[in-house]
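Lab notebook: predicted structure, single chain.

Context: the supervisor wants predicted structures on file for every construct in the current expression panel, including those that have not yet been purified. This is the next one on the list. No modifications to the sequence; it matches the entry in the shared construct table.
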Amino acid sequence: MSPSPPLTIAVRLRLPAPAPNRRSGAWRGGGGQTPPPPRHPFGGQQKSAKKLARLTANAYLTETKRCGRTHPRRAVIAEDACRMRASAWDPGPPMRLLIIEDDHDAADYLTKAFREVGHVADRAFDGEEGLALALDTPYDVLIVDRMLPKLDGLNLIGQLRAKGVSTPALILSALGQVDDRVKGLRAGSDDYLSKPYAFSELLARVEVLARRRGGRGEDTVYRVGDLELDRLSHRVSRAEAEIVLQPREFRLLEYLMKHAGQVVTRTMLLENVWDYHFDPQTNVIDVHISRLRSKIDKGFARPLLHTVRGAGYMIRDGAR
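Prediction complete. Output recorded below exactly as produced.
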């Protein structure tokens, strides 16, 4: 019996692709290999305009250089927001805003940013939902993305104008050419801001639109339920019974009532009631809140001053 022939096994080795020369940037590959396409400076391959806008918004909310050390308990909205705090910037009377943006991350970032500076912000993720909210709710300003599903931003604003809704509208869009801006303004929008943008500029533009519309003048008397504060006479009363407050207590109550129905953070109180632009690491807020609560709520069946755990304080009519 003749021996069987030897078994031959062929092995094909797959070598890793050559890496680029990090110092010179030159491609070290040989043998006719094609270098990979250049990478986008933000990482990965070329990103869409919406992805870039989301990265920009994320940078504004997570930038903690200097601000993070100054306000360790508060999310910061870029370095320009820290400059606004340092200059004793006052956001003025609160606005009610509608953000119509199909990118959920970008919408979340804008909502947090506007709420952080004391405004009320609602969200809609497509044009039809945004149109329904804008028709049913009186907003101060609409912030509308141009490229929306179901109903694009230009048609949305056009339908609002056709129905007689004059709420100021600002378009946010990655389309920033002159023709794009002109088309957006002629469609009925009041302002047009190209992406990426600085939040401080967006906030300033929104405030200007609200001022032009009017109806946001400073009230001289604030009322929450049966609690009344007269800013001119410095008189405070509840159920027609006068309440005597110390100057700091009056200022604290005035600020809370000015932002009635909204969460007021400790940082907002430190900056606008105590004129501190740093955290003194004391319980001064807790002490004054306790004293104020004992004066305006004690003896009444319905409390008005509420603590929002992990966020701050709110004054509103009715139990939370």
